[in-house]
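Format notes (please read before filing issues)

Several people have asked whether sequences and structure tokens are stored in separate files. They are not. Every record keeps both together, in the order shown below: the sequence lines, then the token lines. Line labels are part of the format and must not be stripped during preprocessing.
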Amino acid sequence: MEEKISIIPLGGVSDVTRNMYIYEYKNEILLVDCGIGFANETMVGVDLLLPDINYLKESGKKIVGMAITHGHEDHMGALPYILPDLPNFPIYASSLTADFANEKLVEFGQQKRVQKVDFDGGEVKIGSFTISFIRVTHSIPDTSHIFIKTPIGNFYHGSDFKFDLTPYDNKKTDFQKIVKSANQGVLCLLSDALRAEEPGKAPSESSLTYAFEEEIDKTQGKFIVTTFSSNISRLNQVINVAKKFNKRVCFVGRSLIKAKDMAIRLGYMNLPKGMEVDVRGLKNVKDSNLVLIVAGSQGQENSALTRIVSGEFREIKLNASDTIIFSADPIPGNEISINSLIDEISKIGARALYHEVSGSFHVSGHGAADDLMLLMNLTRPKNVLPIGATYRQMVAYRHLARQQGFVDKNIILIENGQEVVFTRESSFLGKRLNLRTVFVDQISGEEVESFVVMDRQKIAKEGVVVVIAEVDSQTGQIVENPNIIARGYASVDAQTLSKGLTKDLKNALSRKKGPVTNWIYIRRQIADTSEKFIFKTFRKHPMVLPIVIEV
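Then the structure lines:
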């Protein structure tokens, strides 16, 4: 029988987050990435989403190892949630990525498990797979593409990247290693496609320096920048601009302080002695001499920036002379909270510079059309498979691939859970996993079943009505009008609702067959009848909770 290898995305295809990919050969599985997704405003009480790993637990296949491409949450943030449910296996990543991942594992009370791999080092043998890490540029240092050798052909896993020829840290994409790998043949290129719709080339990170300098020069009060804590290049830019203008720098927010300490330890950040000031020492520095780098670019409820703007941060008071720069794109779903925060800043009178009025303070870490087509030409694959993008963006990637001479049968567009099977000569679609959305509760950190989220959504949208009914234990009939407690529901008199509902309840219970004290049946009848009556009367579908009291 002809040998084959399968690729199954558990997340990251037609979905920008939850990146996790299965490479399966015979009885062995190699995993690439293990990321989280972000809940939207409709997912009440949910903090994040995880890939569904039931296939990994139930398939009987052996997980021989995992490679992590970079240190962003949507590529490695699910590790502490998922690893405890899987058998032990080796995990590999570049230096900074491994430190970010291990820090997260320790934060959850787990052992450090991610091993560091040098970009200049050799190949890593993992079961029947052999992998090597290729340095590329992205919005976080030490980002990797993974070249995967298998017994039936080679795969180039090209997740998040752009070809920045003038990166701020001067650590450029290793084009030579890309070409050297490609010369061994590439059966399929899996490529970042997030910005496939945007023509041209992605701007360089270095292009932001002038914009920061211009604004810091005109700011009379505190100069505040908020960005993602993992964007080490952006942090370095702000530090160097502050240095040029003889300002002191203060990092505000736990995630930023942690990222700063890690970057300094690994040599990715140079903070001159005496330049940094602790938040407790801010009272000793004039506002005009301060640059604050603050966590909370997404308007998170309890973030440092939100607390500063709301006046809850004791050591920092926002003034009309201050400038706040949002140096990050909004994550889809966060626009409302960000805009609300900007409104509050405007009420104080401070200047807020953000994505909609000034695009000069953020550049994407993802390649545009020219970057994506260049990677196709450098790797010269037989097949291409866009990843890390919505379906619309994947279709745009297909147009780019056609321009580069690929025919449709070699341009593979799939969704999460869809297996693609490769032989030496062909590719075809295999089985489709029925993946569920895995929700994690923001308080307990534990998984929340989908029906719980649906219940929360219903309560948030339609309200809840509690029907307390006294039922005769001998006849199974309503004794008197039920008590009604309504919350988050249309303003209706509970007594009026109770009277109108009583007739329907009596009719429903009088039709009951079998034992009169079948309390499960009685509860269900009260719930169903109440729901029908409320919808008939008010055209609403609140959650109805029946409470039956035997008398």
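For reference, the curators noted about this record: Residues 519-538 form the longest helix (20 residues). The chain has three domains: 5-201+364-447, 205-359, 463-550.
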